[in-house]
Amino acid sequence: MLALTAITLGPVPDWRVSLTDVVVPEEDVEAVADVLRSGWLSMGPRTESLERAFEAYTGAPHALAVTNGTAGLHLICAAAGLGPGDEVVVPSLTFVASVNSIAYTGARPVFADIAGLHEPWLSAEAAEAAITPRTKAIMNVAYGGHPGETEALRELADRRGLVLLEDAAHAAGSRLGGRHLGTFGTAAAFSFFSNKNLGIGEGGMVVTPDEELAAQLRLLRSHGMTTLTWDRHRGHASGYDVVALGFNYRIDEPRAALAEARLARLDEENRRRGELVGRYRAALAGVEGVEPALPPAEGAEPSHHLFTVVVDEGVDRDAVRAALAEARVQTSMHYPPAHAFSIYADGAPSLPVTDAYAARTITLPLYAHMTESQQDLVVETLTAALAAPARA
Ligand SMILES: Cc1ncc(COP(=O)(O)O)c(C=O)c1O
């Protein structure tokens, strides 16, 4: 007889406002329960349905669901043919997975600086300066879901004959001139990690306009095998060959169903995030010692994955964060720059704007169902912290 024990979360801090918050409505529970009842759990019809829905949503000709965003990034680097001797220009101000995925292939990540203290995305000018005869690709990162210098990077990659890869982990629902981010390059990877706008726990999606690359991505996603378990189950194949050194980066059906259910609400949730960002910007306009980053840009409809601020020089950023934590308001900082990590520090270039941003930024709570009173509390607490002895 199985003994069922309740699982408790342990001592989680009792935040009055957490950085992000995942709500799972009954329709999502039902979508997953339906899959469980069907008895088919590994990659199959729900995954195919999610992929078609994601293609329709983003306008990308080919979408392939994967086990997480990092696996997706590795897949696009591998399918783009990166390997030892190649260099890839990448911002240091990103989650380390963007950089690791390049290094997995044996290629060398080459860090370039961000565009400005309030524009924390890869600078096209800095990216161009980092190009050498060994450069094969540029990896752009849609920081916080913002397009940043996507168009200039596209032009740069074309002019210099380079592959443009997009880390679109933050960019589910982000558009530039009506075109979805992730469709400007050779291939892109999205993340569906819990804290993302399309969060399902673990999951991701790769997209590409290139049919041959899509076929290669499909092979590499599942061990380089020419057929899937699902193909054999439905009688479409009886055996398989292995034609490439692939991985197991497949998603499963419960998570695919959850992602498709959540995709239907994504635009509405991102719109609400945008309203909250507008409220933050208005409320912080007169507050001394801090300025919002990520300014609105012409033609951009960001997913508003993150809302970040930059404190004035001389303000003790960590003391401000500690005061917010004391008031039970959770904050974060995106990101500790990759070039400062021991694994990547050797020979790293000087990146003054990245260093300044990393020393002075705070990420404030933001999620679609955050209430205005929760947001007011964040602003009040931040204002009080900036007025207190935190200011040196
Ligand atoms: C910019 C960026 N790239 C890549 C990843 C990796 O995605 P995942 O956690 O789904 O592997 C993340 C998220 O964690 C991210 O924020």
Describe it.
The protein has 392 residues and is an alpha/beta fold. It has 14 helices and 13 strands. It has a 7-stranded mixed sheet with strand order 1-9-8-5-4-2-3, with helices on both faces. A 3-stranded antiparallel sheet has the order 7-6-11, with no helix packed on it. β6 (175-176) and β7 (179-180) form a beta hairpin. α10 (266-284) packs parallel to α14 and α11 packs across α14. The N and C termini lie far apart (63 Å). The model has no long low-confidence stretch (mean pLDDT 95). The structure holds pyridoxal-5'-phosphate. Pyridoxal-5'-phosphate (PLP) is lined by residues 68-70, 94-95, 97-98, 141, 167, 169-170, 191, 193, 204.
SSE blueprint and pairings:
Blueprint (H helix, E strand, L loop, with lengths): L25 H13 L6 H14 L3 E5 L2 H11 L7 E5 L4 H9 L3 E5 L11 H6 L5 E7 L8 H11 L2 E5 L7 E2 L2 E2 L6 E5 L12 E5 L2 H11 L7 H5 L19 H11 L2 H19 L5 E3 L7 E2 L5 E5 L5 H10 L15 H4 L6 H9 E4 L7 H16 L5
Parallel strand pairs: 2-3, 2-4, 4-5, 5-8
Antiparallel strand pairs: 1-9, 6-7, 6-11, 8-9, 10-12, 12-13
Helix pairs in contact: 1-9, 2-9, 3-4, 3-7, 10-14, 11-14
The site of pyridoxal-5'-phosphate has 14 residues, from helix 3 and helix 4.
